[in-house]
Design goal:
The protein is an alpha/beta fold and 378 residues long. It is built from 16 helices and eleven strands.
């Protein structure tokens, strides 16, 4: 047998092995879904249909207040259903604050707004003990701050000092605050929705990476089309949004949370999430060349947890009982973009965090199975 024939035979063997492995992966996924369904793990069609109706009421209500931003409203809904915190970044006047206010009205949640300024103190957010006279004696009594609400709007969060910004760290991760050694539980559910303006740098303090990592989503808010602008000025005097009423009760919202937890995440999708997050680290063997060159620090395990949770929520929004690769791709930019720390040379070469995430999505295959050890391609 000639060398050429030998190489062709090895190539055919490798191709057949790859085909067998892809077929086995598909069979394994089908078997996994059947096993989950048999165990009562998959959501029933009735549950998915019910969730779609509830989610549709919320998205339609938000669309009544915020015009021409359908993708933004769906991303906000996905993050909410995953019980995550959001950072909204955009130019002034794009409706970021109105969006948060509308969300609280539609859900009937207790809402507090804090305007972050350089002189704001941590006690102004979490509360502080105050000396009071009770039954003839004086004692310190803790007075709760505005953080004790279901929905906290941290408006222009980057205008406060890092000391004040750090007051949210424990609350965002643990859903509680500690003051003078005493721990106080926050109401459930609890969400932080923060806004920041990307063009004003004087008198601002960029959020540290430790706090950025606690935001499940960072969503960039962009302008609307001319048709939407015409609708706004024609139907809304002085730019006022219509009054909104509650469309989801607290019990219905909790039910949606439970349904999101019931969305199945196949092992193949979980493996894709793990490889995608691992590829964000420049020293990883899976990292593409651009990541190794321009990324200083990659995403943390918290990013992988956020990807899994929001992919489940995105699947439920799409009317699916299980999360797939498409859902991971849909939320990847919002989850990973603010967690990548780029090198200073990245900006000189025109690389942004969003572009880097898009490159990662191109470079990391959805299925990452190696060939069998006894098969080699030469």
């Amino acid at each position: 047998m000639s060398d050429g024939d030998f190489e062709r035979n090895e190539t055919v063997a490798a191709t057949m092995a790859t085909t067998r492995e892809e077929s086995a992966l598909g069979d394994a996924t089908a078997v996994e879904s059947d096993a989950v369904a048999a165990a009562g793990g998959l959501l029933s069609p009735e549950e998915v249909e019910r969730a779609q109706a509830l989610i549709g009421r919320l998205v339609d209500g938000l669309g009544t207040a915020i015009l021409g931003q359908q993708e933004l409203l769906e991303l906000v809904t996905i993050c909410l259903l995953a019980r995550g915190h959001m950072l909204l970044e955009g130019l002034p006047g794009l409706g970021k604050t109105e969006l948060v206010k509308s969300l609280s009205a539609l859900l009937g949640l207790e809402f507090r707004r804090v305007q972050f300024t350089p002189d704001l103190l941590p006690g102004d957010i979490v509360g502080s003990p105050i000396l009071q006279e009770t039954d003839g004696s004086r004692q310190l009594v803790f007075h709760k701050g505005p953080i004790f609400a279901n929905l906290l709007l941290a408006d222009e969060i980057n205008r406060a000092t890092p000391k004040t910004q750090s007051a949210l760290l424990e609350a965002m991760q643990e859903r509680r605050v500690t003051v003078m050694g005493e721990t106080h539980e926050l109401p459930r559910p609890f969400f932080v929705l923060a806004t920041q303006n990307p063009i004003e740098l004087e008198g601002t303090y960029p959020l540290p990476e430790a706090q950025l990592d606690r935001f499940t989503f960072k969503i960039n808010v962009y302008g609307v089309s001319s048709d939407t602008l015409q609708e706004i000025i024609s139907t809304r005097r002085h730019g006022r949004a219509p009054d909104l009423s509650e469309v989801l009760s607290r019990e219905e919202l909790e039910h949606l949370f439970e349904l999101v937890e019931g969305v199945h995440l196949p092992e193949a999708v979980a493996n894709y999430i793990a490889r995608l997050v691992n590829a964000t680290h420049p020293d990883s063997a899976d990292a593409p060349g651009e990541c190794s060159q321009f990324v200083r620090y990659g995403a943390s395990p918290r990013a992988a947890i956020a990807l899994a949770g929001t992919a489940r929520a995105a699947a439920l929004v799409a009317g699916k009982p299980n999360a797939g690769f498409d859902e991971v791709r849909r939320v990847a930019v919002s989850v990973l973009g603010h967690r990548l720390v780029l090198d200073y040379s990245a900006r000189l070469e025109g690389w942004t965090a969003v572009r880097m995430v898009e490159r990662l999505l191109e470079a990391v295959p959805e299925v990452g199975r190696p060939l069998p050890q006894d098969v080699a391609v030469r």
